[in-house]
Amino acid sequence: MAAQDTRTVTEPSFPSVCSTLSAELQQTGNLLPSVDEMLFDTSRVQQALNACTSGEAVELAMGTGGDNAFLIQPISIPPGVTLLVDAGVTVYGSRNPRDYDAVANECGTVASYSSGCNPLISVKANNAAIMGYGVIDGRGGQTLIGPGAPANTTWWQLSTQAQTANLNQNNPRLVNIDANDFTLYKITLQNSPFFHVNYAGDGLTVWDVKIIAPGTARNTDGIDPGPAQNVTVTESYIGDGDDNIALKPGGTAITGGTVSNVSILHNHFYVGHGMSIGSQTSGGATNVLVQDLNIDGDPTNGSDTGIRIKAESSDGGLVDGVTYKQVCMQNVADPIQFNPFYSSSTGTDYPQFQNITLSNVTVLTAGSVLLEGYSTTYPLGLTLDNVNFSPTLPSRDLSASNADITFGPGPVNLPVTSSSANNVTVTNSVTNPTEAPYACNSTNFPLLAPPEFFGSAQQLTAAQPLTLTAIFEPVVESPTTFAPTEPTGNVTFYDGTTSVGVMTLSGTTDLLTLTLPSETAGVHNYTAVYSGDSNYATVSTHVFTVTVSSLSSMTQLAASPTQTSVGSPVTLTATVTSTGGGTPTGSVNFLNGTTSIGTATLDSGGVASLTVSTLSPGVDTIVAAYQGNGSYQTSTSSSTAVTIDVTTTTVLTPSSLTLNAGQTVQLTATVTSGSGTPSGNVTFLDGTTTLNTITLNGNGTATYNTTLAAGSHSLTASYTPSGNDVSSTSAPVTVQVQDFSVTASPASLTIAPGGSGSSALTFTGLGGLAGTVTYTCSDLPTYISCNSGTVTLSGSIASTATVNLTVAATLAAIPAIWLLLAPIFALAGFRRKRGRRRAGLTALASVALLGCGGTTASISSGGSQTPPAGQQTATITATTSTIAGTLSHTVTIVVNVQ
Q1: Is 242 among the catalytic positions?
Q2: For 590-659, what is the HEC assignment?
Q3: How far is residue 208 from each of residues 82, 214, 275, 452, 456, measured CA to CA in Å?
Q4: pLDDT attached to residue 846
Q5: Exactly one of 202, 224, 242, 304 is catalytic; which is it?
Q6: How far, in Å, are 707, 741, 772, 881, 890 from residue 710 at the CA level?
Q7: 159-168, 472-481, 606-615: which has the minimum mean pLDDT?
C-alpha cells in the first residue's frame, strides 16, 4: 500500500535530561486554585528550555509536599529540545487573554478573523518534542480573567458566540508547530481553548498521546496536520469537540500546501468529528492510510462523525489515494461522510475525491451515510470492501450522488444502487460474498487507555529501590467538570504471578506509584492489574521488565575468645557488608575447616552470631560463609584461628608413702588428656625444689627414682605440654622418710675400778617415726658392763634413757695352767681350723700376757687382778622395726678406766 509515511517510524524514547524543574503549585482536583493564578512558572521554564542542549530535555517534575502543577504563559521550544512532563504533573495555561495577544487586546474576542492569539506552546524549530506521562491543560472551559477579558466567559463560550454570529473566535491553540520532525510522545493534552495540535512541516510523529476535551467544546480539534508530509499518528486516544484528526491541505493561510504520506495507525477516537480530511483541501491530500481505527462516539451528540472528507469549492482540491481499513465504529451519528459541499462558500477550487477505499469497516449502531461527489465532472471515486452495518442501514439514512462506487472483493450491505438520476454507478465486484464482517466488540472501545506502566529504571542493583508507576487514564471527559471520571478500585502489582503490593484508586487520581525497597537479583516481569469498577472494565498493564543485578558482598569473621579450653563457649560473629549499598540479608554458615558447625541469620545490621562449645582440641580454622540471597552474592571470610586447649590431669604416684632413710622411692606421674595421649615433660618437685624433669613416654607417664632425706616431703608433678594440652600439676603427695637419731651425753666417762658412771641417751624420731627402740651395749671388755633397754619414740619429740657403765673392781682369777700355757698359745697361734677355739685361746693368751707383764694390770698373789687402766669404747646400738624395715644407729661412749 503506497499510502503511508515514507519514514521508518519507531517508538520514541525519552532523552536525557538537561535540567529538572520542580513544581511549586498544587492543583485541587483538576483545577488550580485561583489564589495561584499569578504565580507563573513561565520565566524559569523558558530559561531552562533556552539553556538546554539539542537532544536533551527539560523535565517538569513533582515538587515537595505534593506540589504537582506549573502555570505558564506562552512559551516556545528551541531546536532539538524536548519538554518532558512527568507523571502526576499538570502544566496549566494562563486564563488571561492578555498573555496570548498576537495583536494588542485582540485575544479573547470574537471577530472576522482568528489570528489574534499566540499559542500556549509554539514550536518553530526542527527536531523538538513534547513528551511525558503528565498533562498539559489549556483550561478552555474555565472562566477567563484579567483586564479586557469578557466577563464570566470561557474560551469555549467564545467559540459558541462566534458560531452564532458567523464570525471567528480569537482563542489560542494549545500547541502550534511550524517545523520539521516534531514528536509528541505519551503526553496528555486536554481542554485546549482552540485546536490542540496544529502542525505544518515534514515529519510529525504522534505516539501514544491522549487528547481529551468534551464534545461540546467547539473547534477543539485533536490533531490538524497541514500542509504536511510524512505524518504518523499511532496508538493514540482522542476525544474532543471537533475533528479528532483533520488533514488540512491548503487553506487561506497557506494556499497550495499539500498533505501527503500519512499513516494513521492503531488509534481510538471518542466524541468528536472523527477522521477527517478538510475542509481545506486546496493543496491536495495524497497517500493516506488509516488503519486499525476504533471510534466510539457519544450517542447523545448528534454531530459525531466517523470517516469524513469535507471540502467546498472556495478552498477545494484533489483528495487522492486514501485508504481506510480495519475500522470499527459505534455511537456515531454520521459514520461515513464524503461531503464536497461542506459550506455555502463557492469558488472554482472544486473538490475532487478519488481513489478512496474503505476495507473491513464495521459499524455497530445506526447512523447516516453521505456518499457525494462534487459533480459529474468530479465524481466521488470509492471502493467499498467488506463494509458492514449492523443493524443494516436503512435506505433513508444513505444519500449518494455523483459517485462511482465499486463493491468488493468483500461483501457490502449498504443500500446503494446505481442511479442515473443521481449520477451514481455501482459496480459489483464482490468475489468473496461469504467473508465475515470485520470483527468488532466492546474490547475495541475501551474507556480507559491502555494503562501506562513503567518503573524508575530497567537496570538496577539489588540494593536500589524500584518505583513502579501505573496510570489508568480515562479518555472520555465530562462536559461539566472538564475532566474524566477517575477510576476507583484496587490495583494489584505483580512480579510474574506473585503479588508485590495492592493499592487503591480512590477516584481522585488515575496514577499510583508503588516503591519496592529492593528486589532480588534476576529478571523481574512486573504488571499491574486494575480490578475495574462500575465505569471501567478490568484491565492489565503491559509487562515492565527489570533486570536486577546482585551485589558483591564481603564477610568478616571475629571469634571471642580466640583461645580457650575444651567445652568452653566460643562466640563467632560474622559481619556481612556490601560496597554496592544496602544491608545484606540471609544466613551465614560457620565452618571448622570444611565441616559446618552451625548457621545463623543476619540481623538488620548484617551481623550473624553463633556460640559453640564443641570445637575440636587444637587449632581450629574457622570461616564464615555468607550464603547470599537474591540480592547479594555469596562471600567467605578469611580464616580465623581458634585454639582449643585440652584440660589435662596429672596424678603423682610414689612407689611408697612411707620410707626408711636411704631407701629409693619411684615417683610415677600419669598425665591424661581429652585429646588423646599427651606429650611433653613432667617436672618432679619436692616442695618448691625441682628434683628432675622427665619426658613423658608413649603412654603418658614419666618415672623417676630417687632417695629422700629423712622427714616429711610434699611431692608434686607439674606437666608442661608440647601441644595444645593445658598444663596441669598433680595434687601434692606426702611421703614420709623415717629415721631417728641417738646421742649420748656425756660421751666420755672416767670410771675407777669398782666404780660406775652414766650417760643420758637422747632419741629423736625423724619423719614421724614412732615406736619402740631397743638399745644395747657392745665392744666392752668383760670388766666393764652396761645396761640395755628400750625407749618409746613419738615422732620428733625427744625421748631419753640412761646407760649405766660399771668397771669391775678386780678381774676374775685365771688358773695357773692357763697362765703357763698362754705364752705358747700366743706364739703358736694355736693353729687349728676351728676359728672359735682360736679366738678364745687368743683372748686367753691376752689375759695371760697381761699377767706376764704385757699390760699395766697386776696380778695379786691370790690370783686376782685390777682392771687395767686405759680407754675403752662402749658402742650403744639402737634398733627399731618399721613397716619399711629395720633402722639401726649407734653411738659411742668413751670409758676412761683409771
Answers
A1: yes
A2: EEECCEEEEEEECCCCCEEEEEECCCCCEEEEEEEEECCCCCECCEECCCEEEEEEECEEEEEEECCCEE
A3: 16, 20, 17, 10, 19
A4: 41
A5: 242
A6: 9, 11, 18, 16, 17
A7: 472-481
Span 818-846, average pLDDT = 42
Q: 134 near 89, Cβ under 8 Å? A: yes
Active site residue 273: yes
Report the predicted TM-score, pTM, of the whole model to 2 decimal places: 0.71
Q: Are residues 178 and 201 in contact, defined by beta-carbon separation less than 8 angstroms?
A: yes
Half-sphere exposure of 569 (CA within 13 A, CB side): 5
Rounded-to-integer distance, Cα 265 and Cα 508, Å: 32
Residue 123 region by backbone torsions, left for phi larger than 0, else alpha for psi between -120 and 50, else beta:
beta
**pLDDT above 90: residue 2:** no
Task: Give the pLDDT of residue 849.
Answer: 38
Q: Which amino acid is at 24?
A: E
What is the rounded CA–CA span in Å between residue 805 and residue 30? 145
Task: Name beta bridge partners: 329.
Answer: 295, 363
Distance of CA 565 to the CA centre of its chain: 38
First-to-final CA distance of the chain: 170
Active site residue: 137, 181, 202, 273, which one? Answer: 273
Do the beta carbons of residue 318 and residue 343 sit within 8 Å? Answer: no
Q: What does the pLDDT read at residue 114?
A: 86
Alpha-carbon span 476 to 535, nearest angstrom:
11
197-211 pLDDT, tens digit per residue, is 999 999 999 999 999
Quick one: which of 777, 676, 789 has its CA closest to 722?
A: 676
Structural contact between residues 369 and 392, judged by C-beta atoms closer than 8 angstroms? no
User: Angle CA(524)–CA(526)–CA(531) in degrees, nearest 5?
Assistant: 155
Distance of alpha carbon 495 from alpha carbon 404, whole angstroms: 57
Q: Which three cell numbers stand for residue 808?
A: 669391775
Structural domains in the chain plus CATH codes: 17-194 (2.160.20.10), 254-445 (2.160.20.10), 448-540 (2.60.40.730), 554-645 (2.60.40.10), 648-731 (2.60.40.10), 738-809+871-897 (2.60.40.10), 816-866 (no CATH)
What residues contact residue 761 under an 8 Å CB cut-off, 6+ apart? 742, 743, 744, 775, 791, 800, 801, 802, 803, 876, 878, 891
- pLDDT band at 483, cuts 50/70/90? confident
Q: Given the C-alpha cell 698359745, which residue does it identify?
A: 825
pLDDT tens-place string over residues 80-103 = 999 999 999 999 999 999 999 999
What is the H or E stretch that residue 400 is in? strand 398-401
